[in-house]
Design a protein that fits this description.
This is Substrate-binding domain-containing protein. By secondary structure, this protein is of the alpha/beta class. It is 29% helix and 27% strand. The chain is built from 14 helices and 21 strands. The longest helix is centred in the middle third of the chain and has 26 residues.
């Protein structure tokens, strides 16, 4: 992007954010940290005795084992762990030095019946969890909260212990409220942790952020490579005239160009290659915003018009579906257009009169058809009538008519039984009621043109009246058409940009 190093800024952000997240998580707030996890919170059933044999008698409130009948009991297992970067000692707990208690586990709507330490990562932790060290239980009757007090246990990095508690419901019904650990560390924190078998949401968030940064960098890179720079956008009106066969591709390219160069206003007046050349020859000398697009090179009589090759375009023979013919030899096509074949039976089709449709004289597509398919030895075409008259009268034998532009050709072939014509291939492929016909068994494709087996193709040209000012909208649009996104648009319409051919200068498959 001009004048703004967006890619560099994205790279800096992509590096800085993970570093800042690491410093925040592990140096500033996570250097000293205690975590807790509620690993079990379940009603008492017969399964509890099998999982923790001999533990329930320890938890009964009377030492002789004769306990009063208890109702609605539950068992909770809480893991306390040092999951920070440094050790935690007794002085790190943020409670008065005279207070032995460092942590409190709150059980809302339940009172503690009994408790026991069930697992120590290091036997030395047991010295800090003996009776008299501050470990015990009590009840906040006013708020109906059972509380387990735990001492200021010194814990090395990675140490943990577990507390098993049996409780009785004092209020409410249904699921028990979640136990909560209350404590503070000097220069650190106490927080709930999650099982390490899964992926941390913070880690997922960081990964997602980095993926987003990379994706934005990729898109920005594509845009910088493929779209016109603001300095390369001409400002003003650009009128495009000429070939109706190449019109759809040029219109789509203009739409793509206008998204990035809003200062260019397009006008389209496509009514044939020859008319487009005449328009630019007459009006283009004083109007650098006028371009003619043609199928094939200009003819004689236009000495002031300068060419720019754009792309190799594919053309095809087309027939009405009633013809039932899928392939014609080049000689059969010549015979049909010379009037020597008057019924489709003669070339393998049904008993149906042939209706030959030509483009009007001056059409670039017609000249391409003459040059590449009919050849110079073809006799003059028989006299033509209007296609509308031909459809209404339906005369016997071969009949001829002319279509002035591509859309008229496609509509005539789709509507007129027994008809044959020709058009730009991508337009024909998208038109219902029109069937493409291969020539000598070869289809309209780039590889078949390059190996010289498919004959019906042409070079698309842009013509201006004299040299264009470098900052004109016409010059800027031509640069767009021959590079980046413009080439992609032309390619999407079945055309091959000249730079991709063996001879880019002449835009020819010939080496």
């Amino acid at each position: 992007m001009n004048g703004f190093p967006l890619e560099i800024m994205l790279a800096i952000i992509g590096i800085a954010v993970p570093i800042m997240a690491f410093v925040w998580e592990f140096v500033l707030v996570g250097r000293k940290r205690l975590g807790y996890r509620v690993q079990m919170d379940t009603p008492v059933t017969g399964e509890i005795e099998s999982v923790f044999p001999g533990v329930l008698p320890q938890l009964r409130p009377e030492g002789d084992g004769a306990a009063p009948e208890l109702q609605d009991l539950s068992v909770v297992l809480v893991r306390i762990e040092n999951n920070g970067l440094t050790d935690v000692d007794g002085t790190d707990y943020a409670s008065p030095a005279s207070d032995q208690v460092g942590l409190h586990i709150h059980f809302p709507h339940r009172r503690v019946i009994g408790m026991a330490v069930t697992e120590l990562s290091d036997d030395a932790l047991g010295d800090s969890l003996k009776p008299g060290t501050g470990i015990g239980s009590r009840e906040d009757g006013q708020h109906r909260v059972g509380i387990v007090d735990l001492p200021k246990v010194p814990m090395d990095r990675g140490d943990h212990y577990k507390i098993l508690v049996i409780l009785q419901r004092t209020a409410g019904a249904g699921e028990y409220p979640v136990p909560v650990v209350r404590a503070k560390l000097k220069g650190g924190r106490v927080s709930e942790t999650r099982s390490r078998s899964g992926v941390s949401p913070k880690l997922l968030g960081l990964i997602g952020f980095l993926v987003a940064v990379i994706a934005v960098q990729f898109v920005v890179g594509l845009n910088d490579q493929d779209t016109p720079d603001a300095a390369d956008c001409g400002s003003g009106k650009l009128t495009l005239v000429g070939s109706t066969a190449f019109e759809p591709a040029v219109r789509d390219a203009a739409t793509a160009y206008a998204k990035h160069c809003a200062g260019t206003a397009f006008a389209f007046e496509f009514d044939g290659s020859d008319r487009g050349l005449s328009r630019v020859d007459e009006d283009g000398k004083n109007d650098p915003g006028l371009l003619a697009i043609t199928d094939g090179p200009k003819g004689v009589g236009y000495p002031n018009l300068l060419p720019r090759t754009l792309a190799l375009s594919l053309f095809t023979m087309i027939v009405n579906p009633s013809v039932g013919v899928h392939d014609l030899s080049a000689q059969q096509i010549r015979d049909i257009y010379a009037g020597r074949v008057d019924n489709w039976q003669l070339v393998g089709g049904p008993d149906l009169p042939v209706r030959v449709v030509h483009r009007a004289l001056g059409s670039g597509t017609r000249e391409t058809f003459r040059k590449h398919v009919l050849g110079d030895d073809q006799p003059p075409a028989p006299a033509a009538t209007s296609c509308r008259t031909l459809a209404a009268t339906n005369p016997p034998g071969a009949s001829f008519c002319e279509a002035p532009v591509t859309n008229d050709m496609l509509k005539t072939i789709a509507d007129l039984p027994g008809s044959i014509g020709y058009s730009e291939y991508s337009d024909a492929a998208k038109t219902p009621g029109v069937k493409a016909v291969t020539i000598d068994g070869h289809r309209p494709a780039r590889d078949q043109v390059l190996d010289h087996t498919y004959p019906f193709w042409s070079v698309e040209y842009a013509y201006s009246n004299g040299e264009l000012p470098a900052d004109s909208p016409a010059a800027a649009f031509l640069r767009f058409l021959t590079g980046g996104t413009g080439k992609d648009v032309l390619r999407s319409h079945g055309n091959t940009p000249c730079g991709e051919l063996p001879n880019p200068t002449s835009c020819s498959p010939e080496k």
